[in-house]
Amino acid sequence: MTNITRPTLVIDKEICLRNIERMAQKASDNNLHFRPHFKTHQSVVVGEWFRNFGVSAITVSSVQMAEYFAADEWDDITIAFPLNVLEMNNINRLAANINLNLTLENKETAEILAKHISAPAGVYIKVDTGYNRTGIITSKTSKLDAILEVIATNKKLNFKGFLTHNGLTYSALSTNEIFSRHFDALLKLKSLKQRYASDFPNVEISIGDTPSCSICNNFSEVDEIRPGNFVFYDLMQQSLGVCTFDDIAVRMVCPIVAKHPSRNEVVIYGGAIHLSKDSMQNTDGKEFYGRIAINKKGEKKILNERNYVARLSQEHGIIKVSQKNFDFFKIGELVEIIPIHSCLTANLARRYLTTQGEEIKMINS
Amino acid sequence: MTNITRPTLVIDKEICLRNIERMAQKASDNNLHFRPHFKTHQSVVVGEWFRNFGVSAITVSSVQMAEYFAADEWDDITIAFPLNVLEMNNINRLAANINLNLTLENKETAEILAKHISAPAGVYIKVDTGYNRTGIITSKTSKLDAILEVIATNKKLNFKGFLTHNGLTYSALSTNEIFSRHFDALLKLKSLKQRYASDFPNVEISIGDTPSCSICNNFSEVDEIRPGNFVFYDLMQQSLGVCTFDDIAVRMVCPIVAKHPSRNEVVIYGGAIHLSKDSMQNTDGKEFYGRIAINKKGEKKILNERNYVARLSQEHGIIKVSQKNFDFFKIGELVEIIPIHSCLTANLARRYLTTQGEEIKMINS
């Protein structure tokens, strides 16, 4: 850490391993296939850490990411994003080389896929349990049937089941609300499974949100979980009650470049192109972009909510700190920011440094 | 454009050239040194376009960017960011090779610089005319004097003048407010110049915000302008009244992957890692992340404010469109999104495609 001179995303490998082990154990305890989402870390090095916990199948959110991990000998990949028909050539190359699963949610795309697929591929149908981002509402079975009919026209396509992302759990106001939103999704998925079980005895249900995979214990009818964020966690998950501060494995470490005593503000080299503009609402109602961790007398400490990243421009970050802490921050030293949303921060970082000093590359390093 | 299969930032070179020419002309008409900020485009190829308009001196916002452009024979660079003393080694290497200007705003940093600088460098003092991001409030002359005293202790350091960024113009509610905020800054800078003119007859005033550089016509006492965003402009500038839609040179072109007629929503491959989470408030009070440009019957058209990017997750974008336009969007086709903040979108894109089909690399391509 002492060699850091520019904003650097530092990850604690021990915490990552613990997070992976806990989720792998949970999957195993609940008889769930564990297919972690690699969109959060986007790194073949971090990917290796998962293999040690028996992970051999993964999820990604783009064809590009599938290509990146396939090149590192991951040969069982689900692209959990609505099929982009403009990438059929790349998809066919992937399907020829690995066990590739695709995601469909409309008949038009299914028809193009059935016409152009040139190697065997698994197919999940994306369903919507109420989040309303995308996917077919679970009760609209005629739409599901229409896609299934198209899939059946091409022997290369193997229908595997229904995939969903219950994004509603990210906006829950309490852990109880996460439980109830998860349970509501389970009920919908259960009817779905019952309806299709006779025609497709192996039909799978795959779910993906980190909040419910982290804290819920009822996964009836679920066959597979695809959480991603849990490997790092972040402030958003901590504030939901899904993880503790001790589970957050990432910090953006930034140089301090200026101080403004009249307004208790500290200026860091670390802005929107390092942390991302994802924000949360602080206790005082104001948007903020990260919290602050310090080492005080050899002890790690997270400063309370009166100390936070208040504003971001391209490379500047403005930290608001309480009067009591102001003198602790010194120009030319480093400060650790806990990011709001680790997926976006990691994507901007393009590389990691571990707390042990190892440099780790990512997809676009 | 027909070969695009993934989210791609397309730039219109003709519009960029027009934007550069207009700003270069304005600088010349007002007897201002034109030192454009290259943090927006971050590309040596786009940098070349500036040379044709007589630009030989540039601004950047990090040592890393200075290194990138210095490697492309830019030999007069101002780093308009508070000096990060942790990068002294890199700064010394740069100063040995090019005309480098640094930015100071506190005595601690000045002392470290004076102690460690090993080659001649220009120094600007960053002043704050009311934006309160960073810099010394213009009336705090004792703080300015303290820095000047330190600079004077090392002959390698050459005090050049005062540099400011009047970020207040970006939150103006009308062009009149931009004029008045600019004028307010000019008054403060004028007193500053008067106070220091006898001791430093060549003291310069350097300002940087795109809004006032674009639309104001009074630059009394200003010696240099450093706008950056104007090369591309964006929705934020258009909504401020600083540019027209026709001046915006960038579009994020994204594949359409799904449609939801029941809520008039179109799902694109294009999310927070492509557009950034920078948002604006729509006429209905809701946050949004971009507007939509279409080609209808051979004519370019920007859809009205009832059509917009409503939500973003990592790779998904959800576009809300009016009923009337819904059928225009077809799965498997492309849609053009006008970004809210082109600097952040360009930084995420990592490369450009011109409307003529030329691929353009950036700093981290």
DSSP strand (E) fraction of chain A?
25-35%
The greatest inter-chain interface is formed by: A-B, 54 and 54 residues
**Number of alpha- plus pi-helical segments of chain A:** 12
Say what the CATH topology of the largest domain in chain A is.
TIM Barrel
Counting structural domains of chain A, the number is 2
Text of the CATH class of the largest domain in chain A: Alpha Beta
Taking all residues together, what is the mean pLDDT of chain A?
96
The count of β-strands of chain A is: 21
Distance between the terminal alpha carbons of chain A, to the nearest Å? 20 Å
Instruction: Kindly report the name of the CATH homologous superfamily of the largest domain in chain A.
Output: Alanine racemase
Give the % helix of chain A: 25-40%
Which quaternary structure do these chains form?
homodimer
Structural class of chain A: alpha/beta
Global Rg of chain A: 22 Å
